TrEMBL record, chains A, B:
GO terms for molecular function: homoserine dehydrogenase activity; NADP binding. The lineage of its organism: Bacteria, Pseudomonadati, Pseudomonadota, Betaproteobacteria, Burkholderiales. It is an enzyme of class 1 (oxidoreductase). The active site is at residue 205. Residues 355-436 form the ACT domain. This is Homoserine dehydrogenase. It comes from the Bacteria. It comes from Ramlibacter albus. Gene3D superfamilies: 3.30.70.260, Dihydrodipicolinate Reductase, domain 2, NAD(P)-binding Rossmann-like Domain.
Amino acid sequence: MKAIQVGLLGIGTVGSGVFKVLQRNQEEIKRRAGRGIEITMVADLDTARAEAITGGKAKVVKDGREVIANPDIDIVIELIGGYGIAREMVMSAIAAGKHVVTANKALLAVHGTEIFEAAHKKGVMVAFEAAVAGGIPIIKALREGLTANSIQWIAGIINGTTNFILSEMRDKGLDFDVALKDAQRLGYAEADPTFDIEGVDAAHKATIMSAIAFGIPVQFDKAYVEGITKLAAQDIKYAEQLGYRIKLLGITKRTPTGIELRVHPSLVPAKRLIANVEGAMNAVVVQGDAVGTTLYYGKGAGSEPTASAVIADLVDITRLHTADAAHRVPHLAFQPDQMSSEKVLPMSDVVTSYYLRMRVADEAGVLAKVTGILAAAGISIDAMLQREAGEGEKQTDLILLTHSVREGTMNEAIAQMQGLPTVLAPITRIRKEELA
Amino acid sequence: MKAIQVGLLGIGTVGSGVFKVLQRNQEEIKRRAGRGIEITMVADLDTARAEAITGGKAKVVKDGREVIANPDIDIVIELIGGYGIAREMVMSAIAAGKHVVTANKALLAVHGTEIFEAAHKKGVMVAFEAAVAGGIPIIKALREGLTANSIQWIAGIINGTTNFILSEMRDKGLDFDVALKDAQRLGYAEADPTFDIEGVDAAHKATIMSAIAFGIPVQFDKAYVEGITKLAAQDIKYAEQLGYRIKLLGITKRTPTGIELRVHPSLVPAKRLIANVEGAMNAVVVQGDAVGTTLYYGKGAGSEPTASAVIADLVDITRLHTADAAHRVPHLAFQPDQMSSEKVLPMSDVVTSYYLRMRVADEAGVLAKVTGILAAAGISIDAMLQREAGEGEKQTDLILLTHSVREGTMNEAIAQMQGLPTVLAPITRIRKEELA
């Protein structure tokens, strides 16, 4: 089957990420989607940059209207941003019968009603997973994963810039102005950071989640928006003493009298998982009446994380337009004729790191023998802990953390150490995963 | 449009949850799905119990084959469990052209290949969101939300019983046997807990995730499975001293030589979010090459959390068979003609709790005046912190945490307190969200 033809409007940070990831993972994506997905046309004012990124693999033009006018294009990705030309392009693409994928939260939070109506009438999809929380599939979770629930509330860290600044303020006791400058220097905040630090970006996203959760139209004008610019380092400190962290939360909640929709700094109990989301990461907590509390965490911005969401939307659209209805999503994610025969490794071939605890005689030379066996096997030690033997005690616990090694190698080393006369009990071995 | 007719096989803990949630949220679910979803037939050996739960709203029979033979039934939910009769019923339902929704991880991990093949040939869906991590939409995230990615690894706390036991062991310094008895007494572990504590249940789930992530067939027989029965309290303590927590992880990883698939206790750095998942909660970390690290957290078991996943599958199937292809999922989750006009509240009508910091004169009577104003407004105080004034200092900080109150009421109280001559600077007010 012919590949789905995609036109890309705007090849900046996110756009280039979409192009790169589609290239890099094209085989795997095709095995999932049941059909190739190709960006065949790119519109960007900076055509030289666009040519450099696409390397001749897509036709580059200056004017997005050329992309929309091309009858071969099935899907248009809008990554221009803002309300002006982006809105015009999205509406034209819909009018031309193209499906649209966009990351433009501002556009949807303000003009969503008009856009979705037009799309519905025309019978095309406007997909926007990338508009909220970057690579985290939170739109999918809300629209599809939690459909059984009456959603009670959503609270999210949905702006990475402000979460980075707040983390810096807390970690280093910095005032807002200083932390902002750090964030700008490190690329976590833009030269004009207003939309982020004043809470506007978070409010766009909260507005979209509110509509999806409660079945109300997008109404950004009704959102209460307060940023983090007035936060003082001392408040973060006092909050800490009281057992809380301060986070900029986007909140929407169903109450008996109406829907709450608000963005402002919030004290959150330090023991909550979301209070421990640090740096530029995002997380959204959703409370449903059946499911209880769920949380979704990941990178909320950046080139490839956002591209991940844009491409997921492309695959969604592709699957709907290629597979037979009953198999929109293949049972095991990949098309049945595209399964891999890659083998599952036996445990002895797994490579991981280890915690070892051994009961040893409290005498000279024990450690040398143990570490000698490990060194001979090429196993290096990451950390060590020796419990001090109590008075009169002749045994003690020796605990080692190792670096990564093949399990088979570790098995042999353990057998050898177990054979030492100074190792007095069966060695305890627990695997260690850094998950980094 | 006529409601989708669903037949339920097995109305135990999860089945009764499915029935209850479908009843309770039927209007909202219909607004999302575009069509009613009704359980019209239930098969259970305990027909008296089934009658009591369904209250005459569904036909109750003893034999699941009657449900499958009913031509009016569109979808069959299998909640029998195990490999025997459940397998027979699932295969018969597929053969009869019914879509199947199941929470049966054991069945899919062992017989998934046969089942999915039969479903594919017959053109029906076998949906199984509830089979892994209960109410967390992790199957959807992997199959649809992260399709852009080459998945690198998945590591999950996917068995609530063992995570509860490990949390108890750590919190209270208990040995495994004692913590297990506690878990059994509290209903977190079954009378025969073998499948949970030996890691078999987690391995079933890891096997399913492995297949979806890497496009390989389900192959439970290749999984390495080690439970938590041999864990000693002292290892949890030593791990803690080294900066780690011990969790039972289901891990699957792509390596240059093959796929790792293993379940065993693992040391995890205490600073990782997943290390802080306590009690019977589940969490899954997915590492993709584009999106980076994402995490999904929620209840992994229980009547309504699992029902949440089962019903999400029902809605998925319903949407695919009713809406036009282009609008399988409505843009804003609810059908366009089913949007609510519920109003968004002005900020003054929002009810929340507060952190207040005020710069006050360090003299007698200040606190009485402040608390007097709050009491008169009906605002009760949750906690208080007063910074000790330094030597010679005549001012100090007074910090109050309040219970919930209407924002409008709080605004008035703040204005009054601000008017006190002993309040020396603008009062800082930050909202507080317990998120519980």
